[in-house]
Amino acid sequence: MFPDPTLSDEESSSWLYSSMAKYFSHWLPEEQKQTMAKAGYFSYKVKPSLTIISLNSNFCNNLNLWLLPSPADPASHLAWLVEELLIAEKSRSMVHIISHIPPGTSSCLGAWSHQYSRIIERFSSIITAQFFGHSHWDEFSVLFNSSTRQPISMAYITPSLTPHDGLNPAYRVYYTDSSRDNSTHLVLDHATYSLDLEMVNTLPSNTTLSYTLEYTARDSLGMQDLSPESWGGFVQRLVREEEAWDMFYRRYSRGGPHAHKKCKKTCKEDILCRLVTFDREDTMECGRIKKEMKMIEMEQTEQWTVWDIL
User: Fold this and answer.
1) What is the pLDDT of residue 265?
2) Which terminus in the chain has less CB density within 10 A, N or C?
């Protein structure tokens, strides 16, 4: 995997980072070329009101054995992130963060995930969007304030083009408020396009493949907006409303073969917990969901008992 480039006695991955810096050179200012060449991360001010920060999530990858001696902040990556966010805050710039491994998944080391979540909470007023991949599922993750437990930030986790594990390939287009004066740079909506592999495999080999619109967030999910509060409310609907859950589970794999697998109580709990676990060391919202699902199960059992008596 990828060692900490600040440790001179480790196998160097500078050949990779320097090559990346070369290919990104026509986009990045000199200072950011240096961070790219050093450790594969950079910051770029697209316009005065918007900064894009790209993180190297291999420094939280739980399969990166080079991180075992010092997992908290390899390459001082998180320290650099704080510096970049302070610069953005001072200049009144909003921030979009792009990376690969979502912080709340088991693929990200707990210590790194926790420190990253603390940073996002501190700067949640200027971080208007975070975009991740890695899991291949169509999902998301909500960050809750550690004190008030209110939803304060969002991690969008984009479905993959890779069709393994019974998934249909998909891609997503995000629509942000970024083209007008005084833009907020909030995510206004997103549209997911998918391909039905079972259907296209029946077509002639020379057929041009066409992805079709699977759903849009606001219309299809019945959301007023895409704020963290609205996503938190959507999770509650998934807990309570069976129809909403069934549709979400189908979209989770884009209607691929995996969608036909039964997802019973433990499976549903695991998926719902992923949606509310942004910090791997904070399982409070997951615990609340499990308690609520247990209460729902008890209510349903009581209803069936009454019918048995009648």
Assistant:
1) 93
2) C
User: Phi first, then psi: what are they for 199, rounded to 5°?
Assistant: -70, -45
H/E stretch holding 98 reads: strand 94-98
How confident is the model over 131-143, as a mean pLDDT?
97
In eight-state DSSP terms, residue 306 is: H
Q: How far apart are CA 58 and CA 61, in angstroms?
A: 5
Q: Please tell me the distance from the alpha carbon of residue 152 to that of residue 126, in angstroms, as a whole number.
A: 11
DSSP3 helix / strand / coil % (the chain, rounded to 5) = 40, 20, 40
In angstroms, the CA 290 to CA 114 distance is: 22
What global pTM score does this model have? Answer: 0.93
Q: 77, 125, 126, 69: which is closest to 101 by C-alpha? A: 77
Start-to-end CA distance of the chain, whole Å, equals 64
Q: What is the mean pLDDT of the chain?
A: 92
What's the CA gap between 122 and 116, in Å, rounded? 10
Relative orientation angle of helices 228-240 and 242-252, to the nearest 10 degrees:
110
DSSP-based three-state secondary structure for 215: strand
The DSSP-derived string for 8-48 is: TTSPP-HHHHHHHHHHTTTTS-HHHHHHHHHHS-EEEEEET
Cα separation, 187 vs 33, in Å, equals 28
Distance CA 22, CA 20 (A): 5
Which amino acid is located at 32 in the chain? Q
Cα dist. 108→36, 137, 189, 213 in Å?
Answer: 21, 16, 27, 31
Residue 108 CA to residue 12 CA, distance in Å, equals 22
